[in-house]
Automatic annotation (TrEMBL):
<dbReference type="GO" id="GO:0007059">
    <property type="term" value="P:chromosome segregation"/>
</dbReference>
<dbReference type="InterPro" id="IPR057240">
    <property type="entry name" value="ParB_dimer_C"/>
</dbReference>
<protein>
    <submittedName>
        <fullName>ParB-like protein</fullName>
    </submittedName>
</protein>
<dbReference type="InterPro" id="IPR041468">
    <property type="entry name" value="HTH_ParB/Spo0J"/>
</dbReference>
<comment type="similarity">
    <text>Belongs to the ParB family.</text>
</comment>
<dbReference type="InterPro" id="IPR003115">
    <property type="entry name" value="ParB_N"/>
</dbReference>
<dbReference type="InterPro" id="IPR004437">
    <property type="entry name" value="ParB/RepB/Spo0J"/>
</dbReference>
<feature type="domain" description="ParB-like N-terminal">
    <location>
        <begin position="32"/>
        <end position="122"/>
    </location>
</feature>
<dbReference type="Pfam" id="PF23552">
    <property type="entry name" value="ParB_C"/>
</dbReference>
<dbReference type="Pfam" id="PF02195">
    <property type="entry name" value="ParB_N"/>
</dbReference>
<dbReference type="InterPro" id="IPR036086">
    <property type="entry name" value="ParB/Sulfiredoxin_sf"/>
</dbReference>
<keyword id="KW-0159">Chromosome partition</keyword>
<dbReference type="InterPro" id="IPR050336">
    <property type="entry name" value="Chromosome_partition/occlusion"/>
</dbReference>
<dbReference type="GO" id="GO:0005694">
    <property type="term" value="C:chromosome"/>
</dbReference>
<dbReference type="Pfam" id="PF17762">
    <property type="entry name" value="HTH_ParB"/>
</dbReference>
<keyword id="KW-0238">DNA-binding</keyword>
<dbReference type="GO" id="GO:0045881">
    <property type="term" value="P:positive regulation of sporulation resulting in formation of a cellular spore"/>
</dbReference>
Length: 297
């Protein structure tokens, strides 16, 4: 394991709950190497989904460059620790057979553990929309916080929090699709404009079948609210099939141009991301140099 430099505290999520002067024990900013076997997950972890492919990618990254950000633990018994933040890094480290992992050790009261885990995950944007909604619900009901207090803790407006909480009113299969990122939050909010769960599901199936954009779903939701039959509505040609071939070709060209693995993902709303893989710092510098040359042209 490479020597790790000292890092700053994880950010507002922890600082809001742990006083830097009072509650933080001396030396808590020091990174400790903790045995993987001495660590256990938080049973109240707000993250419900751990994508196997994403975990493997993280494991590969850790194997190549190590763990950049130490995880955060609290001690629950002699030689036993519980995760506050960083379960994905802990799981990925197990995949590649690491024996220990760099960690901060925090002294935290039992009643603050759930709140810390929720706030930290929300602020790090590690959760999907439904997990965030459930986290807000837990802070409000389980932790007895007001919406104003939650807003302060996570740095989000009360309107944003309300919009997330409304997602929990959607039918289970719609929530599952949102959790798996098969639809976007924009689609979900458009479905919420319809009061009838059966009509919500009907329109949701149309989204699945035709790959409708958020704007198109909003139009169809309004038609359903007006009592119109969307099955007789002229369908716009789905871009899904067209984009699939175009994306495959673009991915191939990018991979060949950069001489490395490139991944393209796109949601039904048209939003997406490009992921470029590199094996080490030398390869990263090579890729950056390619982009620098393009910028200068």
């Amino acid at each position: 394991m490479a020597v790790h430099k000292k890092f700053n505290a994880l950010g507002r999520g922890l600082d809001a709950l742990i006083s830097t002067e009072d509650a933080r024990p001396q030396g808590s900013s020091t990174i400790n190497e903790i045995s993987i076997e001495q660590i256990e997950a938080n049973p109240n972890q707000p993250r419900r989904e751990f994508n196997d492919e994403a975990l493997q990618d993280l494991a590969n990254s850790i194997k190549e460059i190590g763990i950049v950000q130490p995880i955060t633990l609290r001690q629950i018994a002699e030689n036993r620790f519980q995760i506050i933040a960083g379960e994905r890094r802990w799981r990925a480290s197990q995949i590649i057979g690491l024996k220990s992992i760099p960690a901060y050790i925090r002294t935290i009261k039992d009643e603050n553990v759930m709140e810390l885990a929720l706030v930290e995950n929300i602020q790090r944007e590690d959760l999907n929309a439904i997990e965030i909604a459930l986290a807000y619900e837990q802070l409000l009901s389980g932790e007895g916080m007001t919406q104003e207090k939650v807003s302060e803790r996570v740095g989000k407006s009360r309107t944003a929090i309300t919009n997330y909480l409304r997602l929990l009113k959607l039918p289970a299969q719609v929530q599952m699709a949102l959790q798996k990122k098969e639809i976007d939050m924009g689609h979900a909010r458009a479905l919420l404009a319809i009061e009838s769960p059966s009509l919500q599901i009907k329109l949701f199936r149309e989204i699945q079948k035709n790959g409708y954009s958020v704007r198109r779903v909003e139009e169809l939701a309004q038609k359903l609210k007006n009592g119109e039959d969307i099955e007789n509505t002229p369908k716009k040609i789905s871009k899904k099939v067209q984009q699939s071939e175009e994306f495959d070709l673009l991915k191939k060209h990018l991979s060949e141009f950069l001489n490395t693995k490139v991944q393209l993902t796109c949601s039904t709303s048209g939003k997406g991301k490009i992921s470029i893989s590199f094996a080490n710092e030398t390869e990263l510098e090579r890729i950056i140099h390619i982009f620098d040359r393009l910028k200068d042209q």
